[in-house]
Each structure stands twice: as C-alpha cells, then as structure tokens.
C-alpha cells in the first residue's frame, strides 16, 4: 500500500473491520517515528494489573459472584482500590445489590404464568376491561423512631423526663389494616379491615368489593 492515501488504505482494509481512527494514528506514528511500535510511556509501568491476575479474578468471581472485593484483596498482593479498578475497568463487571423478591414455588410460577396469559387474552378480546390494583397495609400505634436521627441535646442526662428519654415498645401493639384500590381513572375509598380478618379471595368477594 506504499503511496496510498489514508482513505484508500481504509477502503482496502474495510473487510478486516479496522477502525479508521486506528489507521490514522498508525500512519501518523510511522511518519513521526518511522515505526508502528507504541511510544515509550512516562510514569511507572503497570506491573500489578497483569493478564494473569485478571484471569484469576475472572475465574474466582465466576465461581462465587458474591465474594467481596475486600476479601479478594487479602488473597492477592493488590490494594483494594486497584482490585476494584481491575474488576470494573479491566473485566467490565459491575457490583449490584441483591434484590428481595417474593418467593415463588414451581407450582406458584406455573399458576402465575397461566393467570397472566388468561388476563392478556381478556385484555385483547374485551375493550371494556378495567383493571383494579389493590393492596393492604397494617398500621400500628407504636411511635416511629430512627436511632440514627432521633437524638436529644441535654445536660445532665438525669434531668431528662422519661417520656422523652424512652420510647415504649410492646410485643403486640394495637394495629389496624387498611385496604384500598386504584385503576387508570379512579380509586376506591379506604376500607378498614376488622381485627383478625385474613385477606384472601373469599374476603375480596364477600367483604371488600361489596363495600365499594
């Protein structure tokens, strides 16, 4: 390709899927240094973030993705920040929090799938279907508290009234269950569920829907 322009070289190497910017930089490096080798880099060479260590990390994480960076840093002669960069930058991995989801047995999974398919068929065939999303919540009379933020500035401690110093807790506080539902264009009134009533399909049919 002696005497060819950059565009001509790029067209000739099109099937090789080589980036045009890479071609431009290679030509410029050769014109400047008469060589295509990388220029000597300043600073301390990277002697820790080696390919061998990357492969060890990849294998270890693949076996146990829940292993913490802190623990892995103890197993290798690498500080935690360097190890974090290797995992995120070199391996392209991300650290995600585990999510809490509702436990579903194999039987429940099958039932959920069947119900979803049935609901989708109804939505396709019936234009007048209105979906009501509902939920219930238990409220207790215990005072809400946050140990991190609920503080007092006092002196001395013995002069603090007990009503302020302590927060009473009982094993079974008084509570009330409230039910409500919303749809695309409306909402239900709040329904207070009697004490001891269990929310199930029978309760929905006999009590809740009749109260709307």
Account of the 3D structure:
InterPro entries: Homeodomain-like_sf, RNaseH_sf. One of its GO terms (molecular function) is nucleic acid binding. The protein is mainly alpha-helical. It is 41% helix and 9% strand. It has 2 domains: 6-90, no CATH class; 106-211, no CATH class. It contains 8 helices and 3 strands. Strands 1-2-3 form a 3-stranded antiparallel sheet, with no helix packed on it. The model has no long low-confidence stretch (mean pLDDT 78).
Secondary structure class reads mainly alpha
Contiguous helical run count:
8
Give unreliable regions as ranges. Answer: none
Give me the strand/helix succession.
Answer: HHHHHHEHEEH
What coarse outline follows from CA principal-axis ratios? extended
Radius of gyration, Cα only, in angstroms? Answer: 33 Å
User: What is the helical fraction, as a range of percent?
Assistant: 40-55%
Q: What's the story with the biggest beta sheet?
A: 3 strands, antiparallel
β-strand amount: 5-15%
Strand order of the largest sheet: 1-2-3
Q: Estimate nothing, just give the exact number of structural domains.
A: 2
Number of DSSP strand runs: 3
Give the terminus-to-terminus CA distance. Answer: 82 Å
If you average the pLDDT, what whole number results?
78
GO molecular function: nucleic acid binding
Protein name: MhmaT1 transposase
InterPro entries: Homeodomain-like_sf, RNaseH_sf
């Amino acid at each position: 390709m002696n005497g060819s322009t950059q565009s001509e070289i790029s067209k000739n190497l099109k099937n090789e899927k080589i980036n045009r910017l890479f071609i431009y930089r290679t030509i410029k490096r050769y014109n400047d240094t008469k060589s295509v080798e990388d220029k000597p880099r300043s600073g301390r060479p990277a002697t820790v973030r080696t390919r061998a260590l990357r492969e060890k990390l990849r294998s270890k994480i693949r076996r146990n993705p829940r292993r913490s960076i802190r623990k892995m840093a103890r197993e290798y002669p690498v500080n935690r920040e360097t190890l974090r960069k290797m995992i995120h930058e070199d391996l392209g991995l991300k650290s995600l929090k585990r999510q809490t989801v509702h436990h579903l047995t194999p039987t429940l999974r099958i039932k959920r799938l069947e119900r979803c398919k049935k609901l989708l068929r109804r939505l396709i065939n019936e234009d007048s279907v209105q979906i009501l999303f509902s939920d219930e919540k238990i409220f207790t009379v215990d005072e809400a508290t946050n140990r991190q933020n609920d503080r007092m500035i006092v002196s001395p401690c013995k002069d603090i009234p007990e009503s302020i110093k302590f927060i009473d807790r009982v094993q079974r506080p008084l509570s009330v269950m409230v039910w409500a539902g919303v749809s695309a264009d409306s909402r239900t009134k709040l329904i207070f569920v009697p004490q001891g009533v269990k929310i199930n399909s029978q309760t929905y049919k006999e009590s809740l829907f009749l109260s709307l």
